[in-house]
TrEMBL record, chains A, B:
This is LacI family DNA-binding transcriptional regulator. It comes from Pedobacter helvus. Residues 5-62 form the HTH lacI-type domain. One of its GO terms (molecular function) is DNA binding. The lineage of its organism: Bacteria, Pseudomonadati, Bacteroidota, Sphingobacteriia, Sphingobacteriales. Keywords: DNA-binding, Transcription, Transcription regulation. SUPFAM superfamilies: lambda repressor-like DNA-binding domains (SSF47413), Periplasmic binding protein-like I (SSF53822). PANTHER family: HTH-TYPE TRANSCRIPTIONAL REGULATOR GALS, LACI-RELATED TRANSCRIPTIONAL REPRESSOR.
Amino acid sequence: MKNKLSINDIAKALQVSKTTISFILNGKAEEKRISKDLTERVIKFIKENDFRPNQLAKSLSTGKTFTIGLMVEKISDYFFAQIAYHVEELANKSGYKIIYCSTENDTQKTKELIKLFAERHVDGFIITPPVGIEKEIKDLMQNDIPVVLFDRFFTDFNTSYVVMDNYESTYKAINYLITTKCANIAFIELESDQNQMTERKRGYVNAMNENRLTPNILRIPFSNDKKQTILQITSFLADNIQLDALFFATNYLTMHGIKAIHNRGLKIPHDISIVAFDDHDFFDIYTPSITAVAQPIQEMAQQLINILLNDISSRKRTIQQKVVPAKLILRDSTIRKI
Amino acid sequence: MKNKLSINDIAKALQVSKTTISFILNGKAEEKRISKDLTERVIKFIKENDFRPNQLAKSLSTGKTFTIGLMVEKISDYFFAQIAYHVEELANKSGYKIIYCSTENDTQKTKELIKLFAERHVDGFIITPPVGIEKEIKDLMQNDIPVVLFDRFFTDFNTSYVVMDNYESTYKAINYLITTKCANIAFIELESDQNQMTERKRGYVNAMNENRLTPNILRIPFSNDKKQTILQITSFLADNIQLDALFFATNYLTMHGIKAIHNRGLKIPHDISIVAFDDHDFFDIYTPSITAVAQPIQEMAQQLINILLNDISSRKRTIQQKVVPAKLILRDSTIRKI
DNA sequence: CTGAAAGCGCTTACAG
DNA sequence: CTGAAAGCGCTTACAG
């Protein structure tokens, strides 16, 4: 920005002190009892010259940047991309901008990114935490920087968060499958000990046990690529020909699982029913359409922003925890058997 | 950030001037011939106290924020979400952070957002421009702020950009359909006069004409919701039963088109072949898998960052324009007819 | 009703 | 080899 106007230039041009300009700029003209006449002259000048105060200078002196740090596992994933969209839209309304990054669920990378965002003095953080960053989160909180976790949280200490009801929604979905006469239901998940995953599994296992059915769990390593995952699910299906339903713990697993089901020449839902965790555009279009446990994305975004902005603007930090219910969207991939 | 260390505190604690601290911090110790002994003492102190300079202050005095403004049509769209992922990853390597927003292709909103980003002194812009923001782009350039457009550009004035070869890739895809003996090929597009769309259409029309086939174009209003789009395509199919292939100009149109094809009870590819512009995870999984014109997303992101960072770091602005070739990914939705 | 001055936390030209 | 001082462009407590 070369030769851009500053508050000083205006002060000089108008022969007024910059204090006065600043007050007017910040809508404190009345409060500071600046004369109407002067106020109007200044406003006119500002409009005519399209003056925009330098936000960096403003931030440096007020300590507020009106920037939120959004740290998600991977911005391009359907779920996170949707969250990013809604969070930005809502933040915008309150004058906040979003700076984002993908953690890739990498602990070390995330620690560094938190520091980088803190250096830039973001006003608050929205984070899907990988394991092992408890200390960094605590540091932020001790430094009085608002943080709200989402998608998952730490069970061993208290933070604000917005998560889905992973246990309940999975539990219900499995029970639904059972009402359709499925009995051999497998649970396909990522190898992860984060609570969003363990809760889904707990919902599955409890639903199965309560119905005197035997849980059957396939764990896919994180390091797998697409092809490996498809192969692994394919051979799992070959080894478990009794299966009549699959519950996929993430939407990407569902995508790969569908390929595997094809490889085995099985028909959905006739030979095997499937339910996906996390909805996706795709599931509605696919033939047959796919039953899914849908996260209420817009509501989650709204909660995240509410909690965060509220925390930013209030003087004392509060802990707020929201567990939002999911919605089981019934489609054609689950059908009554026999 | 309460009671955080500043360069002043360090200067006091170590009984050195802050000038010296600043030099050491910026790796200018040797250049400024600071004694090794002092340098080490300072570095040690910084490490021990985990001192991180306030980037706001730094930016205010240097004029550099190491922030890039990414303005896309909609961050949650598959294509833009992928671009966002790669752009951030690449920018990160050079110490840049990304601040993003969705323009929704709204001219007025975009103008305002450009100003908001400029106020924050982003070092450069990556923009998918809606129509009518030529003046704002020119202003940025005149103020010596690097801008690179992508996905589309303005034909009436010179800017840096990275776009796909929309004409050529569509032209080739249509010709491919013709080699599979399709003759009644319709082109389904969004009502848009932006060049990425008009170029795709030009590729279609030329390929048809050169083969003495009659173009048949369906334009979907921007304002349509999902349901309306599906209905519109469904009735188009009913009115044009001679069609043996559809080319969809965007991946969302493809999704809706597939539903419409289902509604009509047509089988892909037996009754009708389809080709999508823009690839999507979904297309590979769908049965039948969908032939698509794939944008080389990672390459585009790389070009965007190369051009922008190069422009940021060089003193004189350059105009760089890259037209990257697309790849026609043949899958099961296009099959030789008869 | 309005302004001079200090401060936010850095950088850097200049001086010795 | 090192430092005092001015400056980046704002805000705000204080004074009159």
